[in-house]
Structure formats: C-alpha cells, structure tokens
Amino acid sequence: MITKRPEPRSLAEFRATPGASFSGFGGPAKDELRSALVAEQRHLCCYRMNRIRTDETTRIEHWAPRKHAELQLDYKNLLSACSGGTALRPSEQHCDVRKAEQSIGLDPRAPSPHASQMRYDDDGTIDIEDAGLRADVHQRLNLNHRTLKANRKGSLASFVAALRRDQGKNREWPRAALEKARRQLEDPHAAELRPYVEVLLYWIRRRIGPA
Question: 208 near 62, Cβ under 8 Å?
C-alpha cells in the first residue's frame, strides 16, 4: 500500500495559478513531482509492483481519471506507474496505459479497504473475490497478462530458492527465518522495496499468518 506524503511545493504553487491544468504542468516542477511520487512508492509501480526509476519512462498516473478536472492537480490523486507497454497493441498494455480514462475501484493507496482480500498465487496470478475489483485486475489494468504473471512467478521462485539455500538440508520453514524475511521485506526505512514485494509477503503470510 502507498502512504501519501506531503506534496511538492512546486505543485501547490502551480495549482494556485489561474486556469491551471495538468496539461500545462511541465519542466522542472513536473520532474520534481515524478521524483516525489517514485520516492513515496519506494520505486515500485503503483499497480504492477515492478521496479520504476525517475525518468521519462515512469508515468504520472491519475487514480481518478483526468476527466475529473478538480482532481487533475490533487496530489492525493497522483501516483507513479511503469511504462505500461505504451508502444504495444492494446491487448498487451497494462497498468495506467490500459486503464486510460476508465474509473477503477482498486485503490493502492493506504488505508486500502480491500488490501487483505488480494490473493497472489504461486503461478503469478493476482485475484480478488469482489467481482468489480476482479474486473479492475483482469480487464481494466490487465495485471494478469502473461508477461506480468511470469515476472511475479519468477520473482517468487527466486525468493523461495534463496530461502532454501539459507536453510541447507532443513526442508521445513522455521518460523524465525520467515519472520526475519518478512521484516526485511517490510523495512520501513528502506528507500526501495523489493519488486513484487506483496507477492512475497503473501507467500510468507500463508505459512505463518499475519504479523
């Protein structure tokens, strides 16, 4: 989940100018906004959870679409997303590129009323019980595109393999080792979170329960 921080001053100053809209927002102020959003999300895409950096491939996402003019420059409505397969055909796009001007209920911002409902399967699938939110996951954001599923599956496999190496011949999962791994993944002081961190944390919770 994404905990929103105070907005950059340059955004507030621009918003206060008469007739301000996001289409007119650019230059160093936009770069500052992008940097603030990426840092706030600890370098993970708001939807896909892959690694993002502060460059032009990282998109500024409006959770409530830009057609809601009063929210175009509202920092609480702004997120940072990956490139979303911008150059690909629509069926291959994902995240905010796929979402475009659609409204969604799936909200990555804290406190999230549905975060505990999310399920991350070992094959890389993301799912949720609520039918409307499931449509967000599968259709509006296309988060179960084969490439995204493969990335999540590979990240989890690498994580589990590393834990296995640490355990040596012990085929069980000692609770202390899993709790240590969870603390490392959730480190509140880390500037960057591990890609697909929620997938890894879900795998741990299935074995030792919630924190």
Answer: no
